Structure formats: C-alpha cells, structure tokens
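Translate sequence into structure tokens.
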Amino acid sequence: MKDSLSPLEKMSQEVETLNRELAQVQERLNVAEETLQAIRSGEVDAVVVSTQGGERVFTLHGADYVYQCLVEQMGEGAATVSSEGLILYCNQRLSELLNCPLKNMIGSQLETFIMPKYKKGFLLLLQQVQTEETVTRELSLITATGNKEVPVKLSFKQLQIDEILVNSIVVTDITESKIKESAKLTHILNSAIAVIKNFRLLTDGTLEIDSWIGGTQQILGYSLEAVQADSALFIANILPEDREKTLASFIEYIQAGRSGVIEYRFLHGDRTIRWLASNYVAEWDKEQDCWVGIEIITDITQRKETEQKIAEQAALIDIASDAIFVKDLDDHILFWNKGAERLYGWEEAEVIGHKTQTLFNQPCKLTEPIQITTEQGSWQGEIEQLTKTGKNIIVESRKTLIKNQFHQSRSILVVNSDITEKKHLEKQFYHAQRLESLGTLASGIAHDLNNILTPILGASQLLPLKITNMNEPTQRLLRLLSGSAQRGADLVKQILLFSRATDGEYVILQLGDLLLEVIGVVQQTFPKSITISTKIPAMELWTISGDPTQIHQVFMNLMINAKDAMSSGGSLTISAENRSLDEDDALLNLEAKAGCYVAVRVADTGIGMPPELLNRIFDPFFTTKEVGKGTGLGLSTVMGIVKNHGGFVKVYSELGKGTEFEVLLPAIEGEVSLTTVEKAMHRGNGELILIVDDEASIREITQTSLENYNYRTILASDGLEAVDLYSEHQQEISVVLMDMMMPNLDGVSAMRALQEINPGVKIIATSGLLANRKLALDANVKTFLLKPYTIAQLLQILTEILPRDENKANRIPPLTSQESSSLPRVELSRDALALMPPEWLQQMYDAAYYCDGDILLELIEQIPTSQEAIANALKDLTLSFKMDIIMELTDLSKLGLTNEP
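Result follows.
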C-alpha cells in the first residue's frame, strides 16, 4: 500500500511529521520558558531536571531568602552548578562578568564560558572534587559576546542537598591583579640581565620576531622601544665576522629540531664590543606552519675575559721563573715546565716518569711534606734540594692536592721558587741587625769614655806647658800618661767606627797610592816566610772619597789578620781593580748599590775558617786568637769604616785552604787631594768664652787650656745656668762652647733659648756621640766638635768662627770695664746711606730681615774706610741686634731708589 504512494504523497507525509515534531519542541520550549520564569520569580518550590542518572528534583522554595539577597549583592559572581556542570542558579554579578543575560545562563553548561585550554582541567575538577571540600583554581572565562578573556579565581565547594550533589561556585574577577602582576613582571624582565625574544622561523628561512622583553638597555645598549621598532637592529649589530656564521648555525639547528647555545660578539649601544650567548629552543607549530621558539640572550663578556685570562695564565706557566711540576700519588713526575728546566737543569724528557725523591736525592726529607699534603690538601715550606749539576739550592715549595670530579685524590701540584739568594741576603740582614744592636751599645760606652778621656788628653797636653825643668822620671810618667790616654782615645775611635757613630775628614784620594804605602810597610815588617804578591794598577784605578787614615787602617787590619793566619808561612796576595755593578749584581749583597767601585782583594793561604764562624767574624770583641793576642775589634772596625764610606765587604774562606777578603769602595770623579801640614795653634785676644758642661773635669781642663792661650772663660754646669750667664754677659761673650747632653736643660733646648736672646749667638756644640751632630746643626749652631777633642782642634775652630776684627788686640774690653769705645760715631740717616750702591743696600735689608748678623758684618766690611763712622754705627746696630732700625734705614722704597740695572 505504501509502495503504491506517489513521491508527492510521501513528501507530504514527511512534512506533516516534521510539523508535529516541531510543534512538540515548541511546546517544550514554552514550558521551559515558563518554568525558568517561575524559578526567577520564586513562584515554584522545586524543579525536576532530567540528568544522566534520571530525573532529579531540586527544591527551591526552601532556600533562605536572606542568603539569596546576600548572594545577589556580592561583588563576586556566584553560581550553583550540578555535578555535570549545568548552571542551576547564578547571580547578577556573574551575568555581568560574562556579558550574558541571566535568563540565558540558567540551564546552560558552565564549560561553554571557559577558555578552551582550561576546559579539560575544569571538567576533571568537577569529577574529582569531594563533598564538603573547597577547591580553588585560577583560569580564564570568555564572555558571551566579544569573546573577551576574563581571568578569574573559582572557589568550588561540593554540597549534598536532598541526596543530590551540587557545586557552589564563587567567581572572583582577578583581571586587575593580573594586570599588575604582568606590569611588575615586565618591569623585572626589562631590568633583568637577560633579554627574552619570541620568534618564528618560516620554512623559507625567514626569521620573524614576535616580541622582546627583558633588559635590552643593559644587554644590548638599546631601549626596549628601539629594539621593538626595528627588528633588524639586533642582527645589524652582530659583528660582521660573526654575523653570517651565527645566523646560519641558528637556522640550521632550529630546522634540525635541536636546541642549543650560540656565542657571538655584539656592538653594544655604548660602542663597546660585548660577548653574548643565545640559548634557544623551538618546536614545529602545525597551525602556523613554522617553527615557534623562544631565545634568551645573556652577556658573557666577563666570562670570556676570564677564559682569556686563564688561557694567558696557562701560557705563562712555561715562562714563569718558578719551577712548576705535577706528580702522581706515587711520586712519578707527570708534568715539568720550562721554569723547572731552568732551575734544576733537567729537561722534561729526562724527568717524566721519574720519582722526585730519587731525582733530588732527598728521600727522607720529602716524605713528611707529601704525607701532610695528602692528608690536609696542601703544604708549604722551605726545602734544600740538589740540581742536575749537584748545586745546593733552597726553594720555597708549595704543594697542592688535586682531586677529580668525584673528589678523589689524583695528583699533587708543586710550585717551587728559588730563594737561595734571598736566604743569603737574610743572613746578611740579620748579621747587620746584630752589628747595629752591638753598635748602639758600643756607642753608649764610647760616649762615657769620651767624657773621661777629654780631660785626660787635655791635661797631658797642658802639663808640659805648665811644668818646666821636669826630671826624667817625671817626663817618663807624663809620656806614659799621654800614651795611655791616646791609646784609650784610639780604642774609643775604633768602637765608634764599628758603631758607625763617627766619621773622618774625607778627601779625594787615589787608592792605589795608599795601598802601595801599606804594602811597603808590610813588606818591611812581615816574616820572610810569607810571600807577598801584588797587582796594583795605581794609575788606572778610579779615585774614591774617604778618610786616608781610616782607609789605611782597613787594609792594614786585613793584612795583619792574614799574617796571623799564616804562622807557618804562606802567600799573601793583594790586588785591585775597577768594577761596575749593575742592578742584578747589587741584589747579591745587602749593602751594595749599582754603580762604579774600586775592588781590593786581600787573600791568604792560611788556616781558613769553618762556615759557622764566617757569620761572627765582624762582631766586636770576637776573636779566634789566643788570649792576649787580639782585641776582637780589628774586623769590626774594618766593617764600620767600609760601611761609613758607602762600601761593603765580601769574605770567602775554606778550612785549611785560606781566606779571601774583598773590599768594594764607591768610586767618584775628582782631583786627588794633597796632604796639608798641620796648622799652628792660634792664640786668642782676650775673647770671652762661655763653657757649658755637666762634667766638672771637662769644664776645668777646658778653662785651663783656653786661658793658657789668651782666652777668658766663664763656666756653667747645665743649660739653665748657661742661659742666666749669657743674659747677664751677652755683650761680652764671643762664643758659647756647649755640651749636648746635660741635666735640667739639655744642650739643644739651651741653644734655642740663647738664640731667642740673640739670634746671632755663636755656639760650638760638643758631644761624645756623632749622632748628636745632626741635632746640633739643625739647631743652627756654628759647628760641632766630637769628644774627645784636642786643644789644637778647639783653638782652630775658635779661630775660624771669630770675626777677623775680633782678633785685634783689646777688641773686647774686660768684664769690669765700663768705658765706651773711642771709635768715631755718627748719627745715621737715610741721606747718609743713600750714597751707597742700591745692590749693597738691598743685601743689607735682606740680611737684617733674616736676622743674619754674620752677613751684615761682612757687608759692613765692604764700606770704604772714608765712611768708617757709618760702618761703626752699623756695627753697633748689628751687635745690638737692632735689625728693625737697619731695615728702616736700608729700605730702597723709602730712599727713593730701585735695584734695577
């Protein structure tokens, strides 16, 4: 029957069927709309919902109305969702958040409003959430219109209502916080020490940059805006020699599906060249049909510089002066640098594989350092070793244990520095310190002895003048006294020479002539069993500056020592030569300096000395001679004299083979000084001398000596008394003879007090210590006289410092005289002095300004005899210390004169 229906009839029946179905659907939609409207208005108490588990009845009328009102007023979105994700209820805030009408949301699936990438996780969450459990998740929703992404935080809590499971969800909009976090992250990345680049590599090899973030200013030297605006900026600043290779490697690795690191040089914005490293990773994106990746760019300039330094240091190992080698834990040598070859003499091929203990022939001494190194990781100390030639050397050794990546001991690194010469210099330094300490002690003793010997020497010189017609026994006793005093003075001089606390009268002399003189004496006095040979090119030797007496003593002492060492005869050789020392030569001796020297060698074939004595032979009072045959001051005096002359002494000795001394004295240019005859002792003309000394014997003998030579004296026992006496007799005292070391007020303080009274006061400072000479000269005294001094020395100094006019008879009146001088006087005026040359007037003004009485007196001596009255008046002003009046009278500006030529 049906088969008999025509096609038109069949189509008509299908249309009717569709209309019926459409009517049914429309009816159901109307019912659903009415139901939803009733739910919104609260007209129904419950709703039946068909679910996968069957029909469910949800009671609505029992909900708390107050709670419902509170939910509607919340700032967050709220919804009740079935376990399948169907929205059963939502508030107005959620509707606004998703830009969807409330009527459209009820009955909808919540997942339709979730971003696709979060849907899977959301559905899984609905399945896994437990009853009464609260779960929080952050995800993004999508609005119903405009497809705008809204970041939110969802808070789930599953509830069971009438045996039905529902989910209460609170939706919080976190868009603003996400924006803040993004801004903060962007700021951090922009100030970071890295640049992050998102890129796409197309199939044709084209590289496109999607975004830049990070510290472009610091890493690249360009702002983020500049880099984003010009995509070619980065590539253009890779150095040309690195650019092509860098890009080719980058594209090749990406297309091969490999990640990696590329290092290259980049021209920074500040125009400096930096090393950069690009760490990249990429994957194929099917949708975009290209490789999509991320690249992190960092500055590795510092690392590259460090690597360069390491490479340079590695190259320096072979040019280092230190011996550097590596040995395994069994002591076999694995590495041997060029420094080790130079120090020890063995080449690398000769030592690789050999044990160091066998090589250096020191099996016992090296055991302990190796043990400490393996136990503690390092060792440092000094070791004596033998070189290939058998030479003994001292090295400062530093051993370090080397471990592998598993912290297992693998080998020992050894760095040895040759300190042989350093140790030699240390010995010299310690010896010099010992001599200095002994010298300080000796200097103090010498000071006391000088105070004792000064009156003895003075008395021994005065007695022949005071006592006439002495018989022979008396004369013999006097000669004994004088000789003993002189020997004591010589002994003190040797002590001071040793302590370097005295100097002599230096002249330019030809050392060859002096040596020939000493050798002549030696040849006449030494035993015939001693053969003397010389090589003294007197005319070729350079000249030196020195005290002839002291230099004579140096070589006489050395030759006498050589004679004493050859009691059974032998050979004595004296030679001299010119020698130049460079900086390297000077480093071999503590006292040496680079320059020109005259070297004198005194060698004997005597008994020699053992090594332990060589460090003590220059100590004072040390001697190897029998008691009564030596004072122990000979060599110490030699050392003191040579050091005073800026030279140094070297000694070589071997027991049973002899000793060799070498004296090096600095050479200078100049004409040889001729010896002068001793000057006659001058008598005074009644000048008054103030003698200041705390030693009564010195005051007494000095007073007697000066008065015996026509000087007048007054005495003071300390500085305070001297100041009082000078204040009283200032106009009459010509010279003050003052000791430097006194109680109450010392010499320097007393000198300054006298100079405050009279800046032109003439002072002779005396002391038994030469160290006080500098203090005296710094105090502007006329001269310094070292104790013990002779009468002749004192008289000579007085003659030199007293003005010539004071040497005339009756120049200084006696203390009791009150008579005025009979020399003509005149009242000075500017008009009288205006006739003098302007140059002379300016010199007078300058001398008065600086209170220099000596210069003033010299200038006054230039005044013609026809102007004697003016000269006498100026002398009176000078001696009265009226410097202000002299400056007033000689001021060129007030005289209307100039000093121009």
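Note: The CA atoms of residues 579 and 597 lie 5 Å apart.
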